[in-house]
Amino acid sequence: MTSILIIYTGGTIGMIENPETGALENFDMEQFRHLVPELKRFNFTIDAVTFESPIDSSDMEPNDWVRIVRMIHENYERYDGFVVLHGTDTMSYTASALSFMLENIGKPVIITGSQLPIGKLRTDGKENLLTSIEIAAARNAQGEPMVPEVCIFFQSALMRGNRTTKINAEGFNAFRSNNYPPLAKAGIHIRYETHLIRRPDPTRPFTPHYLLDNNVVFLTLFPGIREDIVDMVARIKGLKAVILKTYGAGNAPQRPWLVDKLKQMKERGIIVVNITQCSKGRVEMGRYETSLQLIDSGVLNGYDATPESMLAKLMFLLGHDLSKEEIIMRMNESLRGEITID
Ligand code: ASP
Description:
The protein is α/β, with parallel strands linked by helices. Helix content is 27%, strand content 20%.
C-alpha cells in the first residue's frame, strides 16, 4: 500500500484567525484532518509529523531546513513520498536548500502551502494539498515514482523547487519557474513532462547532507550605490561569498572603485557570483562592455539561477569544507538542475 508522510512546518495553510487579536496563528495536524475530511478518501496511508511549534516561514532558518531533511531521512525507507506544508514567503529558499541537501533522492518531496488558510471557504489550500499528495504518490508504468525531485506544487503547476520564486503576495498563482518549464500541469488530468524530470543515479545511494554555512550575502546594485556600502560588505568578518545582483544580462557600473573592491574581495578569498536582477533570462558576461570588468575581477557566472537557489547552493557548498577551486568548479556545474549550462 502506498504511504505518504506529510511534514507540517507551518505557514498560512495551517493558520486560523485568533478571535481576540485578529492575527493568523498556526493550528495543529488534528485540526487539519478535521478541516480536510477528503484526506480519508485516498486509498493509501497518510501519516503526519509536525514541527513542535509550527512557524511562519519568515522565521525559517537553515537549522529548520536541517530539521526537515532529518525528518525525511529518518522516514525515507517507510514512505513512498513526502509532502511538506510550508509558508509561502520563504518556500522557494527551502525548496532550493532541500534540493541540494537531499542528494540523489529517489522519492518525491512536494512542498506546498496556500495563500488563504485551509479553514477559509475560498481556500486554495485544499486543492494544493490534495494534488500534492496525489503527485507524491504517483508512479510510472515501471512502478517508479513519477517525480523523484524536490518540487513546489502551487495552483495547478508542479515546478522544480530550485527554479521557483514567489512572485505574488496576493494571487493564488504565487510561484513561478521563469527559467525552466513546469514538470507537470494539473487540470482534469495531471500531465507530467517526463522528459523534464530528473531521475536519481541508480548506482549511487540517497545521501542526505546536514552541513550549511551562512557566511553569504546578497549585494544588489542600484544607480547611485555608495562606495562605502560596498566597502562595508567587503569587510564583513568571516564573509565567504557575495551574490552580486546585477542589471540585465549581468552588467554593472564600470566605476574603478567598484572594480577595485571586487578585486579586493577576490584577493581575500571571497567568492563573488553574478546573477541578474531580472526575473527571467541569464547572465552572459562579456556580451556588453559593462560586464567585461567583472570577468577581469574574477566574478563567477551565476547563469540563470534564481537568487534563492544561488544562496542555497553557496551555503551548501561552503558548508562542506571544499577547497575554493572545488567550489568554483561546482558553481559552474548544474548539481540538481538548478542552472542551465549550454
Ligand atoms: N507568512 C506566511 C508564511 O510564509 C505566508 C504564507 O504562508 O502564505 O508562513
